[in-house]
TrEMBL record:
<dbReference type="InterPro" id="IPR010987">
    <property type="entry name" value="Glutathione-S-Trfase_C-like"/>
</dbReference>
<dbReference type="Pfam" id="PF00043">
    <property type="entry name" value="GST_C"/>
</dbReference>
<dbReference type="InterPro" id="IPR040079">
    <property type="entry name" value="Glutathione_S-Trfase"/>
</dbReference>
<dbReference type="InterPro" id="IPR036282">
    <property type="entry name" value="Glutathione-S-Trfase_C_sf"/>
</dbReference>
<dbReference type="Pfam" id="PF13409">
    <property type="entry name" value="GST_N_2"/>
</dbReference>
<feature type="domain" description="GST C-terminal">
    <location>
        <begin position="89"/>
        <end position="204"/>
    </location>
</feature>
<protein>
    <submittedName>
        <fullName>Glutathione S-transferase N-terminal domain-containing protein</fullName>
    </submittedName>
</protein>
<feature type="domain" description="GST N-terminal">
    <location>
        <begin position="1"/>
        <end position="86"/>
    </location>
</feature>
<dbReference type="InterPro" id="IPR036249">
    <property type="entry name" value="Thioredoxin-like_sf"/>
</dbReference>
<dbReference type="InterPro" id="IPR004046">
    <property type="entry name" value="GST_C"/>
</dbReference>
<dbReference type="InterPro" id="IPR004045">
    <property type="entry name" value="Glutathione_S-Trfase_N"/>
</dbReference>
């Protein structure tokens, strides 16, 4: 059994989708960020960084209980545990990991900053908006070009897609017209109708 700690966010949705895709047994624990659940001593033992998501696998890969935090690390762990969505051949494996790191280091942080300065900043910061929206547009362009030559980001459905989908699906928040990125639009539609994704999106 896996204890899954999460809240409503793209990073939490990544792990939700992966758990549903793999069929691993899990129990969902909601972390109320506004009430500071993520800062309690109990939660900090699971994730010292005080963020979501995190998991505790009561039957870890070595047989002992293990806590994993950071969404990319969790996806890698669940892929290894389930034997799914991460190739065993070295070249394919590193293609997937490269695109996973692209999401972790590029898409996630940049889109989060764009969303903050567009929608949540207490006062307008035009330079920051221009900087992060421009980078968001560039990143969408990178993915769109990649998807012009492959059905999925790493060539086949993998944790690279699972990591990127929750962020790229909310393109409206960044003022982007998905018609400008037709390959991303096609990819979003293909992933959104997967049963595991539909189940994940239906969770309140």
């Amino acid at each position: 059994m896996i204890d899954f700690y999460t809240s409503s966010s793209p990073n939490g949705l990544k792990v939700q989708i992966m758990l549903e895709e793999t069929g691993l047994e899990y129990e969902l624990h909601r972390v109320n960020l506004s009430e500071g659940d993520q800062k309690t001593p109990e939660y900090l033992k699971i994730n010292p960084n005080g963020k979501i998501p995190a998991i505790v696998d009561r039957d870890g890969l070595g047989g002992d209980e293990v806590a994993i935090f950071e969404s990319g690390a969790i996806l890698l762990y669940l892929a290894e545990k389930s034997g799914e969505f991460l190739p065993v051949d070295a070249n394919g494996r590193w293609q997937v990991i490269s695109w996973l790191m692209f999401q972790m280091a590029g898409i996630g942080p940049s889109l989060a900053q764009a969303g903050y300065f567009l929608n949540r900043a207490p006062e307008p910061v035009p330079h920051a908006v221009e900087r992060y929206v421009s980078e968001t547009e560039r990143l969408f362009g990178v993915v769109d070009r990649r998807l012009s030559e492959a059905e999925f980001i790493a060539g086949y459905y993998s944790i690279a897609d699972i990591a990127s989908f929750p962020w790229l699906r909310i393109h409206q928040r960044f003022g982007l017209d998905i018609a400008d990125y037709p390959n991303v639009g096609r990819w979003l539609e293909a992933i959104s109708v997967r049963p595991a994704v539909e189940r994940s999106l239906a969770v309140p």
